[in-house]
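Box S2. Input/output pair 1.
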Amino acid sequence: MSSTTELAEEAAPAGVEPAPAAKRHRAAAVIALARFEARQLLLHIPVFAFLVLYLAFTGWNLFNGREGMDEFPALQDADRATQAAPQLLGVALLVCVNRTVLRSHRRGTDRHFDVLVMEPWRRTVAHALSVVPYAALTALVVAVQIGWAGHKLGAVGHPSPAELAVGPLAVLLSGVLGVLLARLFRSSFVAPLAVVVAVVLPALLLSADGGPRWQQWLWPVVTESGADPFPSELLGRPAAWHALYLAGLIGVLVCAAVLVSGGRNRMVQAATAVTLAATVAGVAGQSQGDSAALLAARTKMSVSPEKFQTCHEYGRSTYCAFPEWDARAALEWAPLVDRVQSLAGGAAGGERLTVRQRIDARYGMTGDSALEASSTPGTVTVGTRWGGNRVPEFAVGVASVLVAGSEAATSEWCEGDPRAVTVMWLALGAESDPMTAFRNVRLDDSIEGSAYVLAPTNSVSLSAEQTRIVRELLQKPRYSVIPKVKSHWTELTSPKTSLARVAELLGVEAASKGSADTDAEEGSCDE
């Protein structure tokens, strides 16, 4: 190997301090060996395959995530989304780096290294450094991911540099662990066994009750998902401490591998002490639970969001949002409200609504609790997610308030209330593809039979007959339905109007008289 032949003239008598030039050449030899081993790693099928898979998966997400909620990312969530995929590359590196370090043992060439100038511990350092290019490539991919998300027109929030560092650090940690295992155990079966343990052990430890916080954060990646995006100040994730922990742990593993290989000079001992201290500090910092101040802030923003929001008027309505989402009101919410309200008749067509953004952060980042309906007249709830199904769901919420007066009023509707037909027409009548939106907003993703229609707060119940009426309305030309809705608005929004009468007013043929379904639906809302 070229990197080792360069060392022939650098031999020095025992006990004699090498000259500065010799030290520089030895460092260059380590780097040269690391570069060689890094190229060799790419020739391993698992590394090459998982690297291609990682790049392909990331590229596919970048170029195909242009619809739905991916088009409106919250960057404080998008940074955590970069952490999981690099673990595949890390697994491949752990196994292949381990095999690379054990290559001389498997081939019986260990004894040949005794005649070389490069000590075993320097070769260990070179193997550890061979993983650095893959960690650097992961960092580049992560930078592209967050940059792509940040330049989207609908992006909100702020990413955390510490969260973005987790993916590259996890890759580096996996490779370094493979080096240490090779120095401790002379069997290539230990690395695959370590992978199995790393996959199974967290599931066993965390399956009962989620596990204590200190235990959860010992693993490289802790994504914490389930709840809608929080404002950045409510996250409470110890991202900086976790990055320090991972960096310190990487240093500890490298130093341990060097010590096992015979490198016991003062520099290695000092590095071991420093990295061990960093690891302990990171563990202590990331193990602390949510502070009382954070829990109080989450409760206040959940119960009284108006105290933390800025409000602006666009058109006839007022829009209140948390600061990070402020721009979304003018770009997304106001145009949709105007479209829905333009289909309404009577006073609802000119009603001044208040659209207020709300969250429920009291149960943490893994909680998925529903928002309570507002009893304030004219107030519409909007969440922190946007895009995809969230758009027609918000339209249903706006239409419900225009028809019922408030979100809480819809909870008093009986099952199969005829006013739900008017709500659905207002919500979806202005959509470019109303039938697809109708399918997406229903809980069972169908356009036939009874189902619940999702909304930011209270869902709307549709019977099979109501579904049929709404489906026929959405298939009619929009201009033919709008005059009927506006001219018969009072009757369409009255709780005393029967479903058959609603169908008649909107120009839809009612179901045949005498059918069991029709009889049940006709009488479902009678007092």
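Box S3. Input/output pair 2.
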Amino acid sequence: MNRRTLNVVRGTAAAATAGFLAALLAAPSAQAAPGVRTLYAAPDGDGTSCTVARPCTLEGARDQARTETGRDVRVLLKNGTYQRDEPLKLGAADSGKDGRTVTWTAAPGARPVLSGGRDITGWRQNTDGTWTADVPSGVTPRQLFIDGRRATRARGEACAASTCDATKTGMTGATATGIARWQRPTDAEAVIRVRWRNYHCRIAGVNGDIMTFAQPCWTNSASGTDRTGPAWDTTTVDSTRYSGVAYFENAPELLDQPGEFVWNSKGRSVTYLPRKGENMRHARAITPHTEQLLVVDGAHDVTVSGIGFAYAAYRRPGTDEGYAGMQAGLTLTGATGPVDHAGRYYTKPSAAVTVRGGQHISIDNARFSRLGGAGAILEAGTKDSSLTHSTFTDLSSGGVYVGDTEPMPGAALAGERNTIAYNTLTRTGVEYTDAVGIWAGYEAELSIDHNSLDHLPYSGISVGWGWNQPEAHKSVLRDNKVTGNRITNVMEVAQQQHDGGAIYTQGAQPGTVVSGNYINRSAFGNTERDGNGIYLDEQSSHIVVEHNVITRIGYKWVSNWADYGIQNTARGNWTDTAAPALGGTGSVMTDNLTGLDRLPAKALAVAARAGAHGGPVEQLRTDLARTGTATQSSTEGTAAAALALDADTNTDTRTLSEAGAWWQVDLGGEQHIRQIEIWNNSATTTADFDVVTDDATVHISGKALRPTVLNLDSRTRTVKIVTSGTGRVALSQVLVHP
């Protein structure tokens, strides 16, 4: 290239560069990357400005956000309570556009709360120490909160099946319970627990000793409808597993304990017996009224952050539908319907937040509290969405529901790639005790990760559905992850819900992993051999259970009992007991450290990391009996005394039935002991007995639990368990701690 050509090229390049710069400088400013559009809302908002000085209502901010294009939108909620008569509804028009997002979040330093509550005011004192207030029209107080503290619907004592005999049409016992003499028995409800189920049905009428109940609640709670569950189901109100009414509630004749209230539907009033220190002239009384507070339907690319949700109602149990609990807080509704042995048509509870068919929806740092129903539901084909870093406390029903009960939904209705992570759930299922902390139906690639769940009446986390029914054999369940969760004090014995576990699964779900979870005290202190750590129930198949720490469990640390639950693997877990081999073809247990009386450092590290924030780990206590010698007064069959020292709470000793029957462990020398754990056998046989050491005797009335824990200060070589009268001593395990 000659010099002249080079100069021409250089000149052309320079001209092009200059032209480009001139064009760039001349371009309108709108083509530059736009900033975020910020809108403000406030409880007393108005107008359409949506500025910090002139904020809008929530709906006003939503409508203004719809007009924005080409940039992110942030709606900042100023501090205060947003009283809701209906939910804030976000639909497709409220989605992020062109890769941008719409965010609803708390303004800096604010703690906004969407509330469905109604104040109950005008309290007047009665001569018996109770207080009464009129209730606004349209409001029915099923729950009542006094200064934020939940009151209890006035309730009575349990009524055994021998008195309150339930049939398909009603129940005896109106005379013996005094219900026949109540002023308004038709305001009262029977609350019944049968195994994993919970029923709440209102009394419809009393005729002599016979009570009838609201329909379709009673029919849906009884057998013979062909809609109440699998053909083998024996857990309905009229089944052989029915043992009686847990309690009747909501009658003025039952109002006898501080903190109780009763609703009078005829007088439209509520009466409350205050707790010590409560002054109803100054207290704030709130009842949940509005059912849903936020509904996201068909939207995408929406973030909700830093917002509280409180006092949302769940109205169906107060109607003639009642609460016919089937499993995990889902109920049978409607007077008619198809045969439904796999639970395909069961109904979820109402929730404060519901996401339907959402995509890329993020709920973060939310606060769910004092709810009459559930916390949040993600359903109807919600995908790639998350609920994270949120708290759930004092909920009548479950915390989180993800997915649906149809095993083979169309692509648009399939739940996929959702995440429930780093949340804290405490005291959910307060009223509907069959509800679980986190429930998932037929989901794929779901992650339930590093959540903390504590003090729950039934199971902690439940994934899968359908039992072993033909319509559920093939489903979209696959590749789910339940990892790093902290689950403590679940299957609470006082709530009388059975046959569950800290982590519960159903259905074949290849690729599913349950790993790194810390489970402590599931059904601990139970009245029967029941309540599991990880429960691979029914058709649970193709699931890997690994590297979990599972301690202080009322029954099995891992349960896979069904021969049609196949190809499950439990490996590398740490636990203080043993369990029977996994059932089902191809299921294996390998490299598990069982029967521990101390957790090794690696297990302690796994447990400490589990949960939303990590936390303490209950270290196991050394068992002095482990190396002792056991003897007993006699032996029935092969149930030898040594089976109480084998670090397995699923094997049993058993003496003959005889006067003064006994079991004893010789520790091999005098030991200073502080605690004895006595685990009754599978039939909870051992009852009314003495625990005898070399320097003390302690009497235990009634049946031993699983376990009965006895704290004492004794120096002894032997620990002996002796029946007070005639009977058997039968034990699963006895532990003696220094």
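Caption for Box S3: The two ends are 96 Å apart (CA to CA). Residues 1-33 have pLDDT under 50 and may be disordered.
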